[in-house]
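User: I'm writing a tutorial on reading structure tokens. Could you give me a worked example: one chain, its sequence, then its tokens, then a sentence or two explaining what the tokens reveal?
Assistant: Sure. Here is the example chain.
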Amino acid sequence: MSEHGIEFRPSADFTASRDGIRDTGIVFLGDSFVVGVGDPKGQGWVTRVVGRTHHPDVQLTAYNLGLRGDTSAGVLTRWQGEVPLRWEGRGERRLVLSVGTNDVLTGVSLARHRLNIANILDDASANGVAVLVVSPPPTDDHVLNEKLAVLVEAQADVCARRSGPFVDTFYPLLGHDQWQSDLAASSVEGHPGQAGYGLMAWLVLHNGWNEWLGIA
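And here are its predicted structure tokens:
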């Protein structure tokens, strides 16, 4: 464990530079919210989080593997095929996983969603990859939100059973005035604009982000 209580899990071929700088590769894997669809500045929450992550002992290389319309089954496949390529040459491997809305929209069962997320977490753990799961945010559709609430609780449970970090963006933004107004003004249905993604980034940054990276 690090001095901050966060386990530093380097890859098997990890080698620290002589000046002690950690060479960290972090992959963001998920759907259109990871892409930042709807943000007129093209940043989304991912770029905002990365832009506010600085530490003199960490050299961070970030990769955004968001895919519009992706489901938990899709990210499971891409986890196995696309993600490892981004870590080549990196000493420390980390993954941020955020998916779920399209599972509800396409009728993926809750049991299958849980299994897909659990498979990624278990495979990552077996291979020395530290994972942070970020829930999907609420939408402006009440019926969809009721289903998302169940899914978010399931994600939290899967992470808790593995003692893994989980960031809930759903409940803090559900009914949030600025979030709701940003959804209403967005040019893309069900997605926020600049202000909404800023709120998501704030939630990630203030719910264990630095602690997870071991830079608090």
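What the tokens reveal: Residues 71 and 102 are 5 Å apart (CA to CA). Residues 1-18 have pLDDT under 50 and may be disordered.
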